[in-house]
Specification:
The protein is of the alpha/beta class and 295 residues long. It has 13 helices and 8 strands. The protein has an 8-stranded parallel β-barrel, surrounded by 7 helices. Helix 10 (214-225) packs antiparallel against helix 11 (229-245).
């Protein structure tokens, strides 16, 4: 799974002012990432507001990304949730030929035990035609996939190849990196921990900011993977205010504000999310305009 090295981005789903999917804006988002040096694209992740898309809209998003990508970059698709049996059927029936892997978020709201999480993923792995990337994001799911559970899954399920780790706890990330078997990959799920994770032995990031600032995020991660930590951290510190700004009023309101400032798409999100406030939009636009660092 070397295609998972470097910078992946969790693509937004652009909407028109009337709330419908904006296909042409989605094409521009994909092209902006490709042209900016991103290494792979994640479709229908939580940043893509997948929980607010109906089945036909999901098909439209997938078809649009595949068509615009034209095989340029590896593709990962988000298929996750808190109804295990429904996900099993989705994995059995989905057309996944264009995708290299499935990103599956840990069950949210149910708050399963570690054994429940293990059994959930074990069942998904048994039916998935593609490798699975676990996704741990306790701040959103209400439960934490502990390193011991990840290790069990990595050892027992050959089809589970990596984890997108967004626990935000570098001690847990270090423990995870120390304990997982060889050939199992740890990918940062937070922009703020992306470089520290790589320094500790991770292979990259699935980023939000990266799709709005692809050249800069890709450069930072490549420097880190190459061991050029001084220059990488210089870029990391310069990008850190932007990492904070885009999450200040929730994701993907912030990253969509960047795309609005760049003229790529609107900042429209679907309820229960709302657009970033005018004050935050102005600060985000100013950050993007004023960002000055040698690439």
């Amino acid at each position: 799974m070397e295609q998972l090295y470097g910078t992946g981005v969790a693509l937004v789903t652009p909407f028109k002012k009337d709330g419908s999917v904006d296909v042409e804006a989605l094409r521009r988002v994909v092209r902006y990432s490709i042209d900016g040096g991103i290494d792979y694209l994640v479709v229908l992740g939580t940043t893509g507001e997948s929980v607010t898309l109906n089945a036909e809209e999901k098909k439209l998003v997938v078809a649009t990304v595949i068509d615009e990508n034209k095989g340029s970059l590896p593709l990962v698709i988000g298929i996750g949730g808190n109804n295990t049996s429904l996900l099993v059927e989705e994995l059995r029936n989905a057309e996944l030929d264009a995708f290299d892997a499935v990103l599956s978020v840990s069950p949210y709201y149910n708050k399963p035990t570690q054994e429940g999480i293990y059994q959930h993923y074990k069942l998904l792995a048994s039916v998935s035609p593609k490798p699975i990337i676990l996704y741990n994001v306790p701040g959103r799911t209400g439960s934490n996939v502990l390193p011991s559970t990840v290790v069990r899954l990595a050892q027992d399920c050959p089809n589970i190849v990596a984890i997108k780790e967004a626990c935000g706890n570098m001690d847990q990330i270090r423990q995870l990196l120390k304990e997982v078997p060889a050939g199992f990959y740890v990918i940062s799920g937070d922009d703020s921990t992306a470089l520290p994770t790589v320094v500790e032995g991770g292979i990259g990031v699935i980023s939000v900011l990266g799709q709005g600032m692809p050249v800069e995020m890709s450069k930072m991660m490549q420097l880190g993977l190459n061991g050029d930590y001084e220059d990488a951290f210089q870029l990391h510190h310069a990008l850190s205010p932007g990492m904070d700004l885009i999450f200040e009023e929730g994701n993907p309101a912030g990253i969509k504000a960047i795309f609005e400032s760049l003229g790529i798409s609107t900042a429209v999100v679907r309820l229960p999310l709302i657009e970033a406030t005018p004050a935050l939009k102005a600060r985000i636009a100013n950050f993007v305009r004023s960002f000055a660092v040698s690439i």
